[in-house]
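User: Assemble these into one structure.

Assistant: Restating your components, then the assembled model:
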Amino acid sequence: MSVKKELLSKDNMAEWYQNVIAKANMAEHSPVKGCMTIKPYGYAIWEMIRNELDKLIKKHGAKNMSFPLFIPYSYLSREKDHVEGFSPEIAVVTHAGGKKLQEPLVVRPTSETIIHESMKRWIRSYKDLPLKLNQWCNVVRWEKHPRLFLRTSEFQWQEGHTAHATEQEARQEVAEMIEIYYNFMKDFLAIPTIKGQKSEKEKFAGAVDSYSVEGLMPDNKAVQMGTIHYLGLNFSRIADVKFVDEKGAENFVYMTSWGVSTRLIGALVMVHGDDKGLVLPPRLAPTQIVIIPIGNTLDFAQKLFNTLEQNGLRVELDARQDVRPGAKYFEHEMRGVPVRIEVGERELNNNQIMCANRVTGEKTTISLEGDYVQELKNLLQDIQNTLLQNATQKLKSSIIEAKDKEDFINKIKNQEGLVKACWCNEKECELSIKEHTGANTRNLPFDENEKELKDCNCIWCGKKAKKIAYFSKAY
Amino acid sequence: MSVKKELLSKDNMAEWYQNVIAKANMAEHSPVKGCMTIKPYGYAIWEMIRNELDKLIKKHGAKNMSFPLFIPYSYLSREKDHVEGFSPEIAVVTHAGGKKLQEPLVVRPTSETIIHESMKRWIRSYKDLPLKLNQWCNVVRWEKHPRLFLRTSEFQWQEGHTAHATEQEARQEVAEMIEIYYNFMKDFLAIPTIKGQKSEKEKFAGAVDSYSVEGLMPDNKAVQMGTIHYLGLNFSRIADVKFVDEKGAENFVYMTSWGVSTRLIGALVMVHGDDKGLVLPPRLAPTQIVIIPIGNTLDFAQKLFNTLEQNGLRVELDARQDVRPGAKYFEHEMRGVPVRIEVGERELNNNQIMCANRVTGEKTTISLEGDYVQELKNLLQDIQNTLLQNATQKLKSSIIEAKDKEDFINKIKNQEGLVKACWCNEKECELSIKEHTGANTRNLPFDENEKELKDCNCIWCGKKAKKIAYFSKAY
């Protein structure tokens, strides 16, 4: 693998992003327009994300299942906003089994409508509630400007769908899922996010309220990392999903839905990567430690590998004979392996190992006489912490304010940061902002301060402000 | 849950099968014709199968990845047999993103053609070989007569695709995968299968040779549990997948593909289930042990639950207050939970537990003074062994021979067993057999005996026999 270093300056984010994904062998555009092929290394990262988040979703009480790939077109069109929102993006099967279908089938862009059809049959009484379902699957939303992981016509995701007896319980579900996603991004991806409500313009087609956790990329464009929707009775009224309560009365159920997708990998690449390539947080790295034997140390390296593997570390031994150590360093740095262990003859003779930290570049010597497995685990934890600290520091310093409308326009257009501003909370105002700056509200944060809003006017239209909002362009 | 016992006689397999799947809450037909909804309990079984087989596939050296859901129609049509074989079953996307597509896209019925397109770009030299890829995904083959798990228009599966430098290596890959599948069925599903080659008529569209592991159901219809294809150069020539060998010469790669699907769950249901419902082999049971407290023993039961869970057993505590113990027994028997532990006040006072074996119905008392965790693990292993022994005994006793053509027809039509017979190995003869009996060859077993073939004529056409073959109807 030959990597030209000049192709990897993070200053040019778009080019850098493509290069890292190509050179770390993560994914590529497929011959099918807008769809991607996720290669083994990219897919191993997705498996890590999926396995860890799946544990949290199961612990939360949702059960995995599998609903059909296809949705009858008539289902999608029952909810007016929903069909309007998704129509421009859908792929439609018109022929199957050698015949034209009586009713076209939509390849699911999201599964609310087909899942609610099942819920209608499964929910009878309050004893069946809450009902919390989840599926890991592929969905299709036709994409004119595909970007690997961030926007592709087909993508992998998980979608949770829940039904509750009361609004309060459904709102509680939303609050819990926001926390689960927020903590997952923080604890596993080492990415701090901003929790908040989506504006009317940006909310999910058919939802009463939508919420998101938003991550900020180094070029000050945002990535919506996860979304959580309070659907109220909108969908249950249409699909006729009712339950009999404890008093024998029939009521509609309150619903939510929530999801994260393979775009998380795109954010992971951008937030942590550097001019040497990918940097993976140890908790999600398919390979946490790579061991590189130098000289006549293969037996020693193999024993070390066995010990680390037995202790639950995800470790790789790169014993290739036809690749020089320097080239191996370069390659594993590109792949973002958090720790590289070099074992040369000096290390062998002194019964020690040399550990290189992918984030700081520091090298430390660890003696094999002591509890070196624990020391390596500590080193991995340090790296995980460092990544989160760096990203948190970067996010804090990137939240900026604008003096006036002109300053707002400049800061948005120049991508100077995530602009926090007073806002009127009106859809038409946001449409105007989008038209003039290319930006939307990212979300309206939960931690807004009433004081901040006092005597504050909308940064754009000048009316009395109703909300604090974050603005930036987005992936 | 109320279950009418008379609906569960295994003598009427078709009705029994539907009832078990419905009452054990495993899956149901979806409103989309031919597609199924896999419910949480059915999906948990699929997750167990997937996780265990995935480990074996990774150990075998194949790497997981994700290829697009859609395949350009032109790709599929490059291989003549391939497109002829799959055309009647494909679903076609003609419109996407609000426009008619220039070229229709096929929803993948299998991914050879799109994966080979990538292999062409990824393989340069002998150093890139062997290349072993696998994906767990959904595929679509339009089905006129859907049956839950066994035949559905959309199904979940894994498909492995490999490329090799020589025919010998590719044949070796086929042999290894046959063994991996055979052992997986035996060791995890507790289902003995017959390894063999598919006939010309029954082989995969586009393969040089196809192989299968076939399971026999209690009604003497077969289920093809896994297939393994030697593709030779058929697809590499068409997709132009070449490599430069050690001498610098350019050659086509030799290919294989192999897969198993959610139909394994259908076989699992039929082979092990009984008149009480589902019976799950402990190695794949989402719940291996259910604890039922009776009377004032909840604390005791909870402690037991904690200990068993900490020791890696998949255990459930059914502490519902509004359901009587007898109803719980009935329900967990229906769900096929291998071991039920009853803890009443007598058990509490004697510091012991009562364990009911789902397969034999036997109840044994285990003292909590001894190593009861190990005793429970032994009990689960016993159950796993018993299921395999029973199924092996059943398979052996179901392999029968026919005296003559008339006897052959009767035995096949009456589903008296898996008929082993001498056969001419000609496609036209098989077409005639199919037309008159509704049966095909299942496969041509590896363990055929030359002696058996000596002086043996085809059971159907009377010509000199060339092979021993197994015949039966199939799901």
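Chain B touches chain A through 53 residues (CB under 8 Å).
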